[in-house]
Amino acid sequence: MGRGRQKAKHTKVARELKYFSPDTDYSALERELTNGQHDPYEDEASKWAEYAADDESYVPGDGSTQR
Predict the structure, then answer these.
(1) Mind listing the pLDDT tens digit for each residue in 5-58?
(2) pTM of structure
(3) 52 vs 11, 46, 57, 58, CA distance in Å?
(4) In this structure, are residues 63 and 56 in contact, taking their beta carbons and an 8 Å threshold?
(5) Residue 51 carries which DSSP code?
(6) What own/partner pairs with CB < 8 Å and gap ≥ 24 does 25-30 have?
(7) CA-to-CA distance for 12 and 35, rounded, in angstroms?
(8) DSSP letter, residue 35
């Protein structure tokens, strides 16, 4: 006897979950995923910044640099 009521409740809950779309707070998500840590690639980029200028003058396949 109670199966109809139980099925109706499950259907209602499933429908609410299907059509519910909360506003996403992307900054909170980023904080949660990064866990308050800094970007390790940022440190690597600063270490090799002096070589980045040399890469701009490099011509692939030439074997030399143009200055």
Answers:
(1) 999 999 999 999 999 888 888 888 888 888 766 666 666 777 777 776 665 665
(2) 0.33
(3) 59, 10, 9, 10
(4) no
(5) H
(6) none
(7) 36
(8) T
